[in-house]
Design a protein that fits this description.
The structure is a single chain. Helix 3 (90-97) packs across helix 4 (107-120) and helix 3 (90-97) crosses helix 6. The protein is α+β, with helices and mostly antiparallel strands. The chain has a 5-stranded mixed beta sheet with strand order 2-1-5-3-4. The chain has 6 helices and 5 strands, in the order E-E-H-E-E-E-H-H-H-H-H. The protein folds into 2 domains: 6-81, Beta-grasp domain (Ubiquitin-like (UB roll)), CATH 3.10.20.30; 83-158, Orthogonal Bundle (DNA polymerase, domain 1), CATH 1.10.150.120.
Length: 159
């Protein structure tokens, strides 16, 4: 069934991006498809794994759980908007330094949630980090290294 396409402008990573979408397209699908921002991963497509986590006005959300049309004028930040090769965000750099990933599929979502935690709470406890990543699944079991990397970035910020 053809639902027709609609014109939409999204604010993504500091730029306004125009695209045409079907009304039923999720934000995750719009990011990965027409906007070609493939850092956002779609895994469960049900909001239970966290792989598709992006920021909506600075808050981490599962982008598979919101229609692109419902984003409105809010700012979307993806993993691509967090840092760039050669100028990584401290959380991205820490994930590399502390080997906080294995297969890497879940990594963008974890990085976005951990960076959001540090933006809200610069000196988190281990328990704070565990709560921040509680909606994420890592089949490789990288949780201890993710926690270590996050706490290391927090410690760097406090010195």
């Amino acid at each position: 069934m053809d639902l027709g396409s609609l014109s939409l402008t999204l604010k993504v990573n500091g730029s306004s991006r125009s695209l045409r979408i079907e009304p039923r397209m999720t934000l995750a699908e719009a990011l990965r498809g027409p906007l070609d921002l493939t850092g956002t991963k779609i895994a469960c497509n049900r909001g239970t794994c966290g792989a598709c986590t992006v920021w909506l006005d600075g808050d981490p959300i599962c982008s598979c759980m919101i229609l692109a049309l419902d984003v409105g004028d809010r700012e979307v930040t993806t993993i691509e908007g967090l840092g760039k090769p050669g100028r990584l965000h401290p959380m991205q750099a820490a994930f590399v330094e502390y080997d906080a990933m294995q297969c890497g599929f879940c990594t963008p979502g974890f990085v976005m949630s951990c960076a959001a935690l540090l933006a809200r709470r610069p000196h988190p406890t281990l328990e704070d980090v565990k709560v921040a990543i509680s909606g994420h699944l890592c089949r490789c079991g990288s949780y201890p290294k993710i926690c270590e990397a996050t706490l290391a970035v927090a410690k760097m910020g406090s010195s």
